[in-house]
TrEMBL record:
GO biological process, one term: pyridine nucleotide biosynthetic process
Keyword Hydrolase in record: yes
Species this chain originates from: Bradyrhizobium huanghuaihaiense
Official protein name in the record: Nicotinamidase
Signal peptide: 1-25
High-level lineage: Bacteria, Pseudomonadati, Pseudomonadota, Alphaproteobacteria, Hyphomicrobiales
Entry keywords, A to Z: Hydrolase, Metal-binding, Pyridine nucleotide biosynthesis, Signal
Amino acid sequence: MLDRRQILAALGTTALATLAPTALPAATSIKPDDASALLVIDVQNCFLPGGSLAVKEGEQVVPVINRIAKAFSNVVMTQDWHTPGHVSFASVHSGKKPFETIDLPYGKQVLWPDHCVQGTDGAALSKDLSIPHAELIIRKGFHKDVDSYSAFLEADGKTSTGLAGYLKGRKIKRVFVAGLATDFCVAWTALDARKAGFEVHVVEDACRGIDTQGSLAKAWADMAKAGVKRIQSSDIAVSA
Ligand code: VGL
Ligand code: ZN
């Protein structure tokens, strides 16, 4: 014999199954409009397998980014673009090793292996990216004495790359951030986008992190506090 609770549960399931719009996208699905832009951050050979600052599983972001990019009429890409002997390279600070930190006039700086030197193959965008409609490539980190994780502002906190002005000039209100690395260039870009007044989504599975000294957890906490929305690529409506 079924008791009253089991009967109600069975009825509930049937009623829900009848109502479920299985053929439609989930109600939470996000449809990028002309006021939305995808920012593809630093998908460059140096950050991919075999590169000098390879991000674990970095290559896995490429097919995800290629797929979601189809849903955007506006795509901007960035390139980390350092001078030889850049201040962020451990090799120019005697006695220092990569991933150690130093104090610079603008604050604490993590030191990195030499990477993304202007004009080198390591600084080139991945040849597996397939986003022919990308409309702008912003290069950053090209001042020898200042780093720039963010696509908006250099690490001095005041020198603009011009990206906010570009996006505002194009009437963009919402940015979606993807690429490498979650805890550095993606996070700093997302935080500065919030400061510049944009609605910001970070597409988690379209990013991978470096994760040094707790940087990945800190980045997600900072982004949550700043009102950055953490989404998955499956939340974005991409027509076949
Ligand atoms: C990056 C470290 C140094 C990044 C760039 O793209 O996240 N990380 N330079
Ligand atoms: Zn760099």
